[in-house]
Amino acid sequence: MTLYGIAPAAFRRVMAPENGRDHAREIAAVARTWWLENRGGSSDLPIALGTLAALALAAPPTVHGPDYGDLLIPLDDEQLVDALRSVWNSYWHRRPELVDVARPLHGWLEDPSDGQVCGLSDYARVLIRAGVLEYVSDVRRCEADDILGLLVQQMRSYEARQKQGQFFTPAIAADAVAEVILTDRFPPGTQFLEPCAGTGTMIRAAAATLRFQGLEPASYRWWMNDLDEVNTACCGASSALWRLGPNVTITQGNALHSPSELEQSAQERRSRVIEERRRSPLLYATRTRWARWPA
Fold first, then answer.
1. Is the pLDDT of residue 2 over 50?
2. pTM of this prediction?
3. Of 17, 59, 261, 271, which cross-links 22 as Cys (Cβ 3.0–4.6 Å)?
4. Count of alpha carbons within 13 Å of 55, Cβ hemisphere only?
């Protein structure tokens, strides 16, 4: 039995590509296809990315978790917007500094226009049908590729990426580099710094390699930096998807020119955001959904 033409989680899991990298590419491809066919361009890239990121963050923490698809599938556009707000509220409660970095992906939820909201529920159903919840709930599958980065690459034209000097490292190449660099085991507490992180795929590869070695990525420190605010926003969301743990720093700027200034700025930003979270436990007011997504 299906709801809105979408099979339950167990069937979606069976129908998903066996390889996590293929699954990520399939999800990104259907997202791009729907967006270009129904929105006609990539000008609303942060909304396409932010919706995908929120649905990914809404995934259960394990493959044996509840099927949140049953909650999301029946929603109309306005109800989905409230559900997305609820997801970011939950992440804000746990990691306010990363949610602050990710604002380009969700800031539009504060007061979206009718044009921004129109069709989002259909877009969400396409992503759920493609198995985004099952993809993220399986950490081995999720760490196989950078799903947000794939969508950025597919939505931005080659000319736009070339103009901004953006050259994304393929997952297979990032994995190979990580395996070479991490041949010698680094002790927990070691900091991994990526000054030109893009959307974070090199950090993803490093975390996946550590996990393959039987180590816990959350025991290490991670610092991702990039010049592009959408890229750093993706890093803020993907940090949770890749289970990088509590010691994550994300900055935006020229890390080769003034790393000490970036570090100071990150510390000041963290203090400011934690104080903001203390004053405002909820990032967004919701009308039809609970304030926090179920754990």
1. no
2. 0.91
3. 17
4. 33
